[in-house]
Amino acid sequence: MTEQPLRAAGAPAPEITCLVAPNPGPLTLQGTCTYIVRDGDQVWIVDPGPRDAAHLEAILDAALMARGARAAGILLTHRHDDHAAGAGTLRRRLSGTARRDVPLWAVDTAAVPGAIRPPGRLLGDRGTMGHVIHLPGHTADSVALLVEGGRLLVGDTLLGGSSTVIVPPDGDLTAYLQSLQVLRALCLDGRISAILPGHGEPFEDPAAALAAVEDAISHRLARIDAVREARARGVLTMPRLLREIYGPDLPAELEEGATWNILAATEHIRRTG
């Protein structure tokens, strides 16, 4: 068995550029964050986003603008279309430019034709560029990329400015809470220096990253308690649960996400007692 190379001594941290897709909305916030990770001459694209021609052209321009830049691969943090729909087209374009097959990595290989499961490490000319971490909960196939130096590209496991929606049965609140504890441990161990979410603003230093994870844990536990208490009082229909837990002024465009999160909490309570 060949040992995978560590990062070359003295190599600078990879560069990360964010391009925001033009798909803003109540659940996508400003739009999907596509990340371009450059390490020397090699580039990786994380979450190409929707099948939007202008956005895909912007990704290609940003990824290959440097002379000699080489596409090393595309990583999907999860299967949802706002992150993955453009991946097949981007892979074909990059492969045509490179005159070789550019790998497309996804845990759910059925999400995009030609996808393969990601390795534990993404390797480049300078050794390890980043580690792929499985974080189920938002979806069963959710992963994050921990780039050398500590920046975590977390997909929709955390959002910058909102809470993520969990849609059962693919979404699983029990698994999500476990994944948040994994992130909390990584923050406390000093392995995460910043969190770059799939939507919204980044958490740009270790303290902000840890606070974001702990806030997400506290928020979910509070929601679970609220659902449990409401059901114990006999509040069982979804319209009444929405009013009880989110208040009478919940915007109509957020009702669908709130409904799914209540259902996820209900399933968690049923499973865990």
Q: What's the multimeric state?
A: single chain
Describe the biggest sheet?
Answer: 5 strands, mixed
The radius of gyration computed from the alpha-carbon positions, rounded to a whole number of angstroms, is 19 Å
Supply the CATH architecture: 4-Layer Sandwich
Strand order of the largest sheet: 1-2-3-4-5
Principal-axes shape call: globular
Distance between the termini: 45 Å
Q: Given this structure, which CATH class is correct?
A: Alpha Beta
The CATH topology is Metallo-beta-lactamase, Chain A
The helix-and-strand class reads alpha/beta
Determine the fraction of residues in helical runs and give it as a percent range: 25-40%
Mean pLDDT, as a whole number? Answer: 94
Whole-number tally of structural domains: 1
Strand percentage, roughly?
A: 15-25%
Helix-strand pattern: EEEHEHHEEEEEHEHHH
User: What's the CATH H-level homologous superfamily?
Assistant: Ribonuclease Z/Hydroxyacylglutathione hydrolase-like
The number of distinct β-strands equals 10
Figure out the total of helices.
7
Question: Are there runs of 5+ residues with pLDDT below 50, and where?
Answer: none
